[in-house]
Each structure stands twice: as structure tokens, then as C-alpha cells.
Amino acid sequence: MEFPKDLKYTKEHEWVKVEGNIATVGITDYAQDSLGDVVYVELPQEGATVTKHEPFGVVESVKAVSDLYAPLSGSVTEVNDAIVDSPEAINEDPYGDAWMIKVEIANTGELGDLLTADEYQKFIEEEK
Amino acid sequence: MESNGTKGLVLDEPLIFEKSSPGRVGIGPAHSDVPESDPKKTLGQKFLRDDIEGFPDLSEMDAVRHYTRLSQWNFGLDSGFYPLGSCTMKYNPKINEAASRLPGFAQLHPYQPEDLSQGALELMHSLEAYLSEITGLEAVTLQPSAGAHGELCGLLMMAAYFKAKGKPRTKIIIPDTAHGTNPASSHLAGFKVVPVKTEGKGALTVEMVKAVMDEDTAGLMLTNPNTIGLFEKNIKEIAEVVHSKGGLMYCDGANLNAIMGLVKLGDIGVDVVQLNLHKTFSTPHGGGGPGSGPVCVGKALEPYLPCPRIKKENGKFSLDFNRPKTIGRMKSFYGNFSIMVRAYSYIRRMGGVGLKRATEAAILNANYIKERLKGTYHLAFDEPCMHEAVFSDKFQESCGVSTMDIAKRLIDYGYHPPTVYFPLVVHGAIMIEPTETETIDTLDRFIDVMKTIAEEAKTNPQILKEAPTKTKIRRVDETRAAREPILRWKK
Amino acid sequence: MPYIPHTAKDIEKILKAVGAGSVEELISQLPAASRLKGPLAIPDGLSEQELLGHMKALSSKNSTVEEYSSFLGAGAYNHYIPSVVDAIISRSEFYTSYTPYQPELSQGTLQAIFEYQTLVCQLTGMDVANASLYDGATAVAEACLMAKRITNREGIVLANALHPEYRETVATYLTGTGDHLSTIDYSATTGATSLDAIESAISDKTACVVIQHPNFFGSLEDIEAIAGVVHKKKALLVVAVTEAVSFGLLKSLGDCGCDIAVGENQSFGNSLSYGGPYLGFMATKTEFIRQMPGRLIGQTVDKEGRRAFCLTFATREQHIRREKATSNICTNHGLCALAASVHMVSLGSGGLRKLAALNLSKAEYLKKKLKESGVEAAFTSPTFNEFTVKVKGSPDGVLKKLLEKKIIGGLNLEKYYPELGNHLLICATEMNSKEEMDALAAALK
User: Fold this and answer.
1) Which runs of E-coded beta strand occur in C222-306?
2) Which of A99, A121, B91, C251 could lock A26 by a disulfide, CB 3.0 to 4.6 Å apart?
3) Domain stop point among C341, C366, C399
4) Radius of gyration of chain C (CA)
5) pLDDT given for residue C133 in this prediction
6) Could you please report the per-residue DSSP string of A92-125?
7) In this predicted structure, what is the pLDDT of residue A83?
8) Does the interface ipTM go beyond 0.90?
9) Contact between A87 and B479 using a beta-carbon 8 Å cutoff
10) Distance, in angstroms, between A69 CA and closest chain B CA?
């Protein structure tokens, strides 16, 4: 299982890539593996506001469903509609093609709460 | 271990639409004895439809063969052992089927005058009385159609009770071992679910309830025995905690088969319970219903029961609609009457003594399986169980074999798998409920097969992963069903 | 003891295996204070022969719609059920199995329900249908909840000409999650719901409008025109059908612009049985699938590529989504759906149309005979197999007199609609012979 070092993570199993004031968000390899074959994903509209720790979407496999929690607050600038049509991308390339939303960061102070790859890996070891 | 599953001629069969030949006639309607009315003139063209494209046209015999072949792809309780935990797959007596089909029960219109329906009302009145006696609760409604429908009915009554007191309550406590219907019904009834983690303990403690019970909480929704097959021993004390805050105790009666005749729920502090006639009272499951989910309540909730109620006055039965505090109606008419006929028939056949014997035998059978399989399969909680035993795949994990593989391998040996992956609190759960109607010989053979499968998991795990191989189809691609949904036939 | 196979020897063997000295010892896990002391006060068990005698005696205290001429409909219809229906649903592979959780052992149930879903789509002209709901009333209630989820609006507008018990059920279901119910009156002339009334009843807070078609008085509603009005406000149109045989003649709901088609399929293959079990159906547009309640069967393949069926979209349901599920429904009415399928299939497309036309002819004949007796239809809208008449004198008195002639003369509407004091709802199906109808007309003269 991979956890790229250049990404930040949350305890709700999202990853975040920060570039300037834009954060790209997806779910981790661990999350897609636990879910199994993803069959459906529901994402917010462009322009929607997301709030840290609040659900912004839903991801489903055949027998499980999970809310997607916003790692940061802000407004959605871009949505990856391609994965709505082919949700299998979430299993195949969780850190690449299967990014979910891009958020314009409202409060950079929230960045400090994100986990590093090492911290996240340690967290999921404990969760198991 | 030789398998019971052997070869038979299983015929392939297309969809009924693919067998259709336009113009072919099956049964055909009655001959008309009145002048024909022309729909175009009577109703006008704008109300009329074109021919229904693709609607199947078959001869009667082809239709019968179609459904007969389909039936042969099914495994019913009459086909073999069906130890589906929490579902109480006990024998469905044939006399019940015959009774429900008597014209005097089957050919009654729900709005026909009460004078012409005295037998039906008497049966319902008596069934209510029996269920009241079994649960130790004052009053019963037979209206709900299924367990979840009964849950909703009971919860709406609780909400109405607090509303009438001028202090509506917003929350309900539900342990994590509960069936999914409990939180779903609670949400529908307008309650916020307060989950209680029992993880690792299997049972609820007084402290767990004390910690969350307050005066904004309508009460506790508890399955007893719980879904792990254990009796909630602290229920009386827990009920006291709930009652001390003015709350009510809801019991999910899905597992009544473990306590009928041994414990009256009303005696141990329960205020409201829904029963599943299609579990404890032997009515068939029908491949997914119809069932029936009567609700029994204590005095406090009686005024809120759905309308109408059945009344007996001077030896005459009637429907009582004059109930100002009622929550209203759960459905049209009076409930799933023909299911009530079957349950009534079962109770009269068994008698009070027989019902208790059934419970005892159900407990004996479950404990026998528990005792003989523990060691081979990991037992979630090693204490005497009630009507079902919960194992897991923990011992088999190291062979790379999961609960699903064990379940599928059972099919090749001629058994319906137990309930799997429920309750959620037991990882990889295998929940076995044998019921009282199985002989010890059946249990012995099942136990031997389970042991053989555990052996196979070590020596030849692939055989489990490939299973089932003897069924008409192999494992299905459920991911594809969800990703590329085909929910109907199209030309 | 019936159905309990244990001999004394068996019990001994089990007790030995579990290490208990007696049955009582085994159940001593139950706290003593919780135990029931005496026996249950339920009569002693009967032999099967005695039981059948008892059940026959009890059933004979009822009078059936075969012994009387019945003109009752109102949501429960007396139709002929072909013998093949009972032959098929009596196959224990169907009726003694559980919900098809293990697809390899349940392909029969699964394919049969998949076919049923298709049949419902064909009848209603909708894209998708679920495996079944409890009955017409609960199906309407579920449709209202579904419309609220889809539109994110609260308002539910019910036609007053929707079955009164359906309206009551909706009201019960909505008490928990917010009751924003209103009703639209029917036209006293046509018996149908007027477009103006609908237009003024809905707003941009309306989630859905529920119209019954044919409505409770038997009158046909102008669904197409209603859809136009409803959609203008971006609300959904729910159409409820209680008499499914009407599908054989009436324009499909999908073609009329309906968003959620719901109702009662009892008319196909399910006996009256004093009100249940019946068969709720629900069909809708593809875009609303994820908000639909109830089980859904999908087609897929097995690992060797053969066509196979399984439960799908289960993440909508209570066992996975718990309090966020689209509904709490679990056990539904699968066997009733099978009965309905077998009946539909045995009719075929031509047979269905003929059956519907026959029902229309019977009702039109009765209407005419009643008119000759001076009993006029109360409303002007066209009707299918059910219609409302105005009688001379108190309806209860009239009905009582008819009973003496072994006629159940219809439903007194006053109980549900106080303004319809002298009105009866009368239904005629293929089960009502010309002689019966002549006798009713003569008796009402």
C-alpha cells in the first residue's frame, strides 16, 4: 500500500495535495482497499462550500458506503466528473486520476491539522 | 465427507419475455355476457394506451414450465437445512397454508359488513389475545406488514406518547448490535439515534445506558436476546434506568423464538415490542415476504395504537375507529390477514405447552451446534447461547479463507449458508440459527460438514474459493451489477 | 409435540454434549427474576384434524364474495385468479425460501422478481421498478418521502380523491419527519381534480403532488395536463393506481409525464383475504434510482460469464446505510409479486387488454342499468370499472336492504366524505354477472 510523501492525510482517510491556495482532495489507497470495488461516487457541485470535518460527498462499494469528509474548509473550484462515470478509477489510481475535488482554501490555519504520510501510516496501523 | 449435493438435471430457461410469441394466448379472460363498450367512445382516445410493447404472450403450459424451472433454481426450507441466523427458518406447516386458503378466509372483502366477517374478526381478536399472553403486554395491533413496519409503528407511538405529555423527545438509544432496521425506523419516526458501543462485551450494561439516557431521550431500542444470541441479563435494571428518566423500553422481538414461554417481556420492563409472525410463528418467508409484524404494548401506549382496533361487545366483534389519540394508520385495511390465519393456526396446533417446548428445543439445538463447533470455528462469545450461535472466520483467516468462502462451500455440500457478516460487531460473523424443527441427525451432519470445510480450508483452500461449483451458476459479479445496472429486460 | 422432532434420547445426547444436566439447567442462564413462573394461558394444542375442523368452523362464520354478489372495490378488487397462480406460488422452493441473499441458491426468486420489475415497467411506462412494497398505501407514503429527498422540499400535496386510507397512511408516515401536508379538492361536477385547484395548491416548496388514477370515485384524471402544471413548479408528480387492471386500457403513466408511479397490484393474482397481504409497487425514472426505497434485482454474470441475477444497489438499504437508508423496509411482498407475475403472464398482452375492456363493459352496463332504475352517476368524468352514484335515501339503509337480497351493494362514501351523504361507490368486474347487475339495479329501483 502506498502513501506518497508529498501528500497530507486525514484520519477520515482522505489525502490532500496543497498547491498554492488550492487543495486537491481524494481518498487514500487504504480507504479504497477497505471499501472494495467502488461502484458509485457522489461529489458536490462546482462552487459549493465545504467545511472541515463535514461530509462533502459519498463513496460506495457493493456492500459498504462511506461519507467523504472535507479535510479543509473552502469553496470547490473543480470537480472530477470523470470518476462519477467510471468510479473504478478510485480503486485503480486513488492518488492520480481519481482525485475528487479541488478546494480554494479558506483558512490556511487548518493545514496544520493534517497528518504527514508517516503519521497517517502509523494511525492506520493502530486502527487495524 | 461426502456431499449431499449431487447432480440433477437443471434446465436452462430464458427470461419470460424471450419466450414470448405475439398473439399466443394463455388463460384468456372470461366470456362477456354484457354488450361491449368501446373504450374509444366511452373514455376517449386521449386516455387510452397503445399495445404494451414486449409484454409476454405464452401458452399456459409454457408459462407453467417457465416458473417450474425457475423454482428448481431455488433452495427453500423444504429443500434442506437453512440455518439463517436471526431469521428463524423453522418448518412452515402445510396445514397453515390449507387454512389460509379456505374460501371463508381468502374470499373476504375488507369493506364487507362486519356482520359478514365475524369469523375473521374473531380470529384476529383471539390472535391478539394470544400474542398479548405470550409477551405479557396489554394490547396488540396486527396492522403492520413486517418487522420493520412494526418497529416504525411502535416508535411512532412512543413519539406520540411524549408529544401528548407536552414534552416531545428527540433521541433514542440503540446498541451497535442492532439490526439496520432499528436505526432506519427510528430515523423515519423522527428520532436521532444515539448509538451505544457494546463492542467486545456482547451485552449491554446498566452503566452504558446510564451514560446516555436523559430526559430528552425517548428510550432504548433493544433486541433481546440480542443479535449475538445472548439474553440481555441486565434488562430489568436497564429498564429501571430508562423508566427513571421517564423513558420507554422498546424491544425488537425478532428473536422471540428464544424466550417464548420462558420470559414475558412485559414482566421485565418492556413497554413495546414488535413480533415477526414470519419468524417465531412459522409463517413462510415467501422468498422475501409477505410477513406480518404485530406490535404489543403496555397500558401507557395503548391509546396510541393504530386504527382500527378490534372490539368485542356482547359476543359480537367490530372494528373500532373512534380512537382520538391514535397515531393513525400504518397501511390500508387491517394488516396481512392471511398471514395472521397461518400464525393463529400454528399457535392453536402447538398450544401453550408446545410453544414453550419449541423454545426449549430451539435453545438445545443452538447450544449443541455451538458446543460441537467451538474449537473448529472461533466462537464470538463463549457462554451458553439462546437460539443462535455466532462464530467467525478468525481461525481460518491464516489459510486465506473468509466467511464468504465457508458459506459458499456449504452450498456445495447441500446447505443454505448461515447469516454472514452480521452482527457487524463480530468481524466475519457466521450466525447459525438451527431452530427447533431440525433433528439432531441433521445437525450432526451439518456439524461434520462444517468440520470438513475447516479441514479443507487448511489443506485445499482453493476449493473453498472456487465454491460453489454444483449450483446452476457460480459466484456472481455483484460489482458489475452495480456499475452497469440492468434492472429490467428490454427488447 | 408437533414440528419438534426431539426424542428423549436426542435430548439426552444434546444435554450431554453441552454439559448440562437438564433442559432447565441449560436455560438457567436466564435470570431467575425474569423467568415466567407458570405456563402460558393458551389452549392446549389441537391435532391437525381437529385444527382443520376448527379453522373451517371459524371461516364459516364469514360470508364470502362468492356467497354474496359483491360490488365492493375501493382499493381491493375481486378478480378471477387463474389456477396456475396458486399452483406456482405453492411450490415450496418459492414460498419457503428467504430473501435471496445467496444468489447461487436463489436464481429462481431473483429471475422471477427481475421479470416482475420489467412487467411493472411495461404496465406503467416507467424506466425502473422495485421488487415490491407492502401495499398501495405504504407505497404512496414511501413515494412522498422519496420526493422530499429528491427535491429537498417539504410540501406534500394530496388529492382529496386519493384513497382516504392512503391519505391517512401518508399522514402517519410523515409525523416523524415533518408534516407539511395539504389536500386539493375534487370537482363536485366531474369528480376529478381540477387543474386550477392544483395550480393554486402548489408552490416552490412543494415536493410532490399525489393524484390517484382512476381516482377513489372511479373518475379518470387528466394526468398529462396535471403533469404540466406540477412540473412548472419543479415539483414531482406521483400517480397512485389502486386498480391495476386499468393498465390494460389506460395510457401509460410514463407517457403522461408521471415521475413516480405507485400503487396496488393486488388485482393481479392476489386474493382479497380481508385486506392483505397485497402488493405495493413503485416505478420511477432512471435518474431517481438511488432515492428509491425497497429491494432491486439486477442482471449480471457469474464468474463463468453466464447470465445471473442478484440484489443490487443495496447501499440504499437499512442493513448497510442504517439511519441514512432510503427506507426501513426489509421483508417486502415477494410472493405476492410472483403471484401477480404469473397472473399477468397467463393473460398475455391481448388477454390483459381484453380483461380491462371487459371490466369497462361490465361497469358501463351496470351504470346504464342503474340509470334506468333512476340511480344516476354522481360525476361526469369517464370511469373505468368503478363509479359513484347518488342513491335515494340513506345509504346505510339501502345497503342493508340489499344485504337481505344477498347483495353487498358498494361502499357508503359518507364515512370518508361527509359532503357525499347519499353516495355509494360501486365496482363491477368480470366476476359480476349480468344477472347480478340486473338484480342490483332492480333492487335499487
Assistant:
1) 236-241, 260-264, 280-284, 297-301
2) A99
3) C341
4) 25
5) 98
6) H-TTTTT--EEEEES-GGGGGGSBPHHHHHHHHH
7) 95
8) yes
9) no
10) 20
Give first-to-last CA distance, chain C, whole Å. Answer: 59
Q: Which of B274, B290, B297, B302 is nearest to B341 (CA)?
A: B290
The Cα of A45 is separated from the nearest Cα of chain B by a number of Å equal to 22
DSSP letter string, B434-455 = --TTS-HHHHHHHHHHHHHHHH
CB A7 within 8 A of CB A17: yes
Given an 8 Å threshold on Cβ–Cβ distance, is C354 in contact with B29?
yes
Q: Please identify, among C341, C376, C407, the residue that sits at the C-terminal boundary of a domain.
A: C341
Put simply, whether B300 touches C (Cβ < 8 Å) is no
What are the two backbone dihedrals, phi and then psi, of residue B316, each rounded to the nearest 5 degrees? -115, 140
C-chain CB neighbours of B156 within 8 Å are 172, 175-176
Q: Chain C within 8 Å of B130 (Cβ-Cβ)?
A: yes
Cis before C214? omega within 30: yes
What is d(CA B411, CA B453) in angstroms, rounded to the nearest whole number?
11
Reported in sequence order, the residue ranges of B258-410 that DSSP labels E, i.e. its strands, are: 272-274, 295-297, 309-313, 316-320, 378-379, 389-392
Regions of chain C short of the pLDDT cut 70? none
CATH of the domain at C371: 3.90.1150.10
User: Binning pLDDT at 50, 70 and 90, where does residue B373 land?
Assistant: very high
**Residues of chain A numbered 13-32 and touching chain B (CB < 8 Å):** none
Tell me, yes or no, whether A114 lies in a domain.
no
**Which one of B328, B337, B347 has the shortest CB-CB distance to C276?**
B337
Q: In which band, very low, low, confident or very high, does the pLDDT at B14 lie, cut at 50, 70 and 90?
A: very high
CA gap C170, C155 in Å, rounded: 12
Interface test with C, best of B24, B25, B34 (most C CBs within 10 A): B34
CA atoms within 13 A on the CB side of B404: 10
Is residue A37 less than 8 Å (CB to CB) from chain B? yes
Cell numbers for B470: 454444483
Residue A35 CB neighbour total at 10 angstroms: 21
> Which residues are within 8 A (CB) of B403 and not within 5 positions of it... i.e. 6 or more apart?
B392, B393, B420, B421, B428, B429, B430
Q: List, for residues B221-270, the tens digit of each pLDDT value.
A: 999 999 999 999 999 999 999 999 999 999 999 999 999 999 999 999 99
Residue C300, C-beta contacts closer than 8 angstroms, at least 6 positions apart: B476, B477, B478, B480, B481, B486, C308, C309, C310, C312
Query: Whole domain around residue C369: which residue ranges?
Result: 69-81+348-443
Return the number of other C-beta atoms located less than 10 Å from residue B313's C-beta: 8
User: Which CATH number fits the domain that encloses residue A73?
Assistant: 2.40.50.100
pLDDT above 80: residue B29: no
Neighbours of C228 (CB within 10 A): 14
Q: Do C111 and B15 touch (CB under 8 A)?
A: yes
Tell me the pLDDT tens digit for each residue of B276-293: 999 999 999 999 999 999
Which residue, among B281, B225, B229, B230, has the nearest Cα to B253 in the 3D structure?
A: B225
Taking every pair of Cα atoms in chain A, the longest distance, rounded to a whole number of angstroms, is 38
Q: How far is residue B216's CA from residue B207's CA, in Å, rounded to a whole number? A: 18
Q: Are residues C228 and C144 in the same domain?
A: yes
Asked whether residue C267 falls in the same domain as residue C333, the answer is yes
% pLDDT > 90, chain A: 89
- A87 touching B, CB under 8 A? yes
Architecture of domain B96-349: 3-Layer(aba) Sandwich (3.40)
Cis peptide before B93 (omega within 30 of 0): no
Count Cβ atoms within 10 A of the Cβ of residue B392 and give its class: 0-12 exposed, 13-18 middle, 19 or more buried.
buried
